[in-house]
Structure formats: structure tokens, C-alpha cells
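Whiteboard transcription, Tuesday session. T.W. wrote the C-alpha cells on the left side:
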């Protein structure tokens, strides 16, 4: 009997630890870029707030596209290029902000055109194995406008 209580306690302890890790990262704001129906790809931009130790965003899943990739913008030989990366770092007690002119999530192979104003579901995957489901609105605005900042390219 004592063994059963110990196993139940350990299970609850592990469940609580998993929930705590999950709750450390939260979506602040974000959107998926609305594109003309003929464009097969789009991108997601959002801000995550981390209330715990440093984390890595390692993948994104989305049922409405064939593939989601983490991308960044680099300048190489005087040319601005987009490159796929393995992860984005979220600083301890800090933020990760994905924007058009920098780090972002490429959503490739839309299964159907997205409609401005509708919401889409994505699942963010982190280096510790935890996942965070988020809902983003399809919109034409950019993160700079959402925050009220001037945005220059």
C-alpha cells in the first residue's frame, strides 16, 4: 500500500513539474500574415514571454500547411536572404519576438487560402519536449503596428 502511495505521489510530482514548465512560456501577441489566395506560403509572427529558465523553440506544427519551418533573415554578400534555422532562443525571464525583418515561422504549402480575420491553430515545440498550443488571427497588420512602433526595413 505504501508503494502505491509513493508511485501516485511521484506521478503527481512529475505532472506538476511538466505543467510548470509548460506554463513558463506564454503567447503575448501575434498573427499569421494574410496573403492573396494564389500565394501558397505565408508566415507567422508572434511574441513569446518566458517566465522561467532559458528555452529553445525547436519546431512548429500546423495542420493547415504541409510544412512549418523556423527562419531568419541574414545579409550575405550585400544580399538579404532567408535561411532555415534549427531553433530560436528564448532568454531566461525574457521575450522572443518574431518579425517580418528577422526571425519568423514560414508556413509553406497552404492546404487552403487563409481568410483575414479567421484564427488558425499552431503548436510550438520546445527543447525540453513540452508543447504550447497557440491560436493566431490571420491579418494584414505587422507586429510593429500592433505594438505602435515605427517599423523600417
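and on the right, the sequence the group agreed on:
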Amino acid at each position: 500500500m505504501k508503494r502505491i502511495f509513493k508511485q501516485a505521489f511521484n506521478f503527481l510530482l512529475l505532472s506538476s513539474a511538466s505543467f510548470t514548465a509548460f506554463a513558463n512560456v506564454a503567447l503575448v501577441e501575434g498573427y499569421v500574415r494574410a496573403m492573396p489566395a494564389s500565394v501558397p506560403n505565408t508566415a507567422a509572427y508572434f511574441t513569446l514571454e518566458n517566465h522561467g529558465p532559458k528555452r529553445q523553440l525547436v519546431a512548429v506544427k500546423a495542420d493547415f500547411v504541409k510544412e512549418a519551418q523556423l527562419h531568419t533573415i541574414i545579409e550575405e554578400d550585400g544580399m538579404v536572404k532567408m535561411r532555415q534555422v534549427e531553433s530560436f532562443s528564448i532568454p531566461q525571464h525574457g521575450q522572443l519576438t518574431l518579425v517580418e525583418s528577422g526571425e519568423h515561422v514560414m508556413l509553406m504549402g497552404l492546404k487552403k487560402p487563409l481568410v483575414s480575420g479567421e484564427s488558425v491553430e499552431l503548436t510550438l515545440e520546445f527543447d525540453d519536449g513540452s508543447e504550447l498550443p497557440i491560436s493566431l488571427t490571420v491579418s494584414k497588420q505587422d507586429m510593429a503596428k500592433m505594438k505602435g512602433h515605427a517599423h523600417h526595413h
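Someone added at the bottom: Residues 8-21, 145-153 have pLDDT under 50 and may be disordered.
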